[in-house]
Design a protein that fits this description.
The chain is of the alpha+beta class. It is built from 20 helices and 24 strands. The longest helix has 29 residues. It starts with a strand and ends with a helix.
Length: about 600
Amino acid sequence: MNILGLSCWYHDAAACLLVDGRIAAAAQEERFTRKKHDASFPKRATAWCLQHVGLEAANLDAVAFYDKPFLKFERLLETYLTYAPQGLPSFLKAMPVWLKRSLWIPDLIRKELGYEGLLLFPEHHESHAASAFFPSPFERAAIITTDGVGEWTTTSWGTGSGSGFELQAEIHFPHSLGLFYSAVTGFCGFRVNSGEYKLMGLAPYGTPRYTQVMLDDLVDLKADGSFRLNMRYFAWPWKLRMTARPFERLFGGPPRQPESPLTTREMDLARSAQVVIEEALLRMTRHVRKETGERNLCMAGGVALNCVANGKLLREHIFDRLWVQPAAGDAGGALGAAQMALHGHAKVSRTVMRPDAMEGALLGPVYSDVVIRRELENAAVPFKAIGYDGLSDYVAQLLAAQQVVGWFQGRMEYGPRALGSRSILADPRGVEMRSHVNRKIKFREGFRPFAPVVIAEKAQDWFDLGRESPYMLMTCQVRDTAIKGEGLARLEGIRSPVAAVTHVDGSARVQTVSNETHPLFYQLLQAFEERTGCPVLINTSFNVRGEPIVCTPQEALMCFLCTHMDVLVLGPYVVHKKDLPDTIALSPEAIAARYGLD
């Protein structure tokens, strides 16, 4: 069977194609349009998925959309009626969009695809649950999904077994852990629906002095992990913003303006909100373990991308094993919808795969060496043809010499993390490398941490992890680490053998790499260890602040030219910044102008 899954029209649009039960292709629309978190219909992502396996829309047996539009419309309409007349401005802005587009989603899908076959519409949290359970390595497991909101559901749990699952409990809008965390994100001056990871990164700089206030006034959290929000403090049901005036009074004034200096208040709010999320998930997880008796847990939904909370769940050993969908947000809804069509509608039996069915999340576009060479020649860029046999040794030598490397290899990653196909790599041993990559290459806030990538067999020697973490979705403590100082000054007080990837609480968001899943990347780590004694590298996504991860060789070249990266590795070809003529290499002034820097 050929099944296409789609997610779009909220954020992180994506397409996923299943061929005979295997995930053949999956990608987010933003990688093709270059609009970060692009929510539009995934026309380009769909076209690539079909082209990649040589299919046309007429060859599809089913198309599945990741939620039920009419049920979502019901929720919006009922919410506006409930909160009338406060919600009138928001109602007047939203309803024309829904009446013009969302109520006609089946017709729009058919028109965009040129497709007349079977259309399926699983519920939003069914799609999340399917994306969590069906690709997992478990024959049976408990399932938890939690995000902002789908149609009505914001949190659900249930159990999966074999080729099916059942969701047994739900929490409904407006009560939402995801929206609570987004509200604090917006209040701290970060963009909602994209800045939540910044709030998570800021949290270790603060103290949890607002945690009890949040639990007393904002979140009524029960022993079983269920919760209700005090909607007096939140405005999302009826306004085009997240927080209400009482929220401002509770936390000492108006929201922080974006790009203004961070204060102790924002750091403490971030830490307090993180503690609330962690406590809610811990209570929920304990309850689900008790109710289901299952030994394994699968998770999806945007909140499942909170790697700090995931690390805490792992250390608590509530379940024997934890598996989180690497595309846990709405992009992964496309995968879940396709899986629902396969196992839920068509009743096709599931085959459990090890280590999982995600192919290392390397499910996106790939470019041949011939195409890469042609791009370099067309750009008149001098390059070296190293060949794959000697590539790892060559690049490891550059990394050991403190060169920052753009690494473009194989299939692009599906989900928000760069996992060694579209990555920027650097030596993690010196703390100064973190500030250099943040300021000169990523052009982002200095407080944000970098993730380490490590040889799987050596991970336990450097990190208190206790398991493999191929998708960079768990945090753990870095061994032999000490931290001094308070607030942002803690950045200068990190003492660690891999200081550039050690956060100010002594933690790191680790990716482990195996030779079976990612052989070339594994060989690079081995070669770096042979030179330095360290099997760890900085691995950050190949992009700059505000832009999606690069997809094509041309985009990788442009990003390289417009930053202070030293080396670009495209397949077997290597470009050195120092070898570029002045007519190609951009000046610091040109870089600043491109990215709006001082």
